[in-house]
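This part of the workshop introduces the protein records we will be handling. To make this concrete, we reproduce a full record directly below:
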Amino acid sequence: MATSGIGASDIVSATVGGATYGLALLWALALGAFFKFVLSEGLARWQLATGSTALEGWARQLPRWVMVLFAGYLVLWAVAVSGALISGCGLAIESITGGAVPRTWGGFAQAVAAFALIWSAHAGGLARVMKPLIVVMFVSIVACAALTFREPVAVLHGLFIPTIPRGSGTYVLSLIGGIGGRSHC
């Protein structure tokens, strides 16, 4: 569940946002985590109570035109999220290499690698590869947070006094929405 709620673009966007605006946007992370929890809890309860997914319930209960509109939205959403993920991953490669690998080529290379990994995965193969990577991601995030934790009062201020610094709107939406990546990355 945690890995479906946070990805590379989320990490990169949150890191760049934190480096740019400090702890001022911490409230947006907390709000985004709360929304993800509420949505995940509601979907899990629906599935446990009905034995069907939310999408299956919509298909049975709502008029057909709603599903057609949703399908169109899903295509647009998939394209936008894919672009944001590729952009975020490209930003990570560009940052790691000090600009030696441009964001576009870094994103493209990671997209090709992800496609190849998923395409070649057999039953359970992808999960076996992803489990250790998830642990590495978790440990890395916690270690980075611990190493940079210096101002407890600033953390409390960032969590409980919402501010939107000038120019931070895309980061706020990214942190709350959980999509990560920005259109102009």
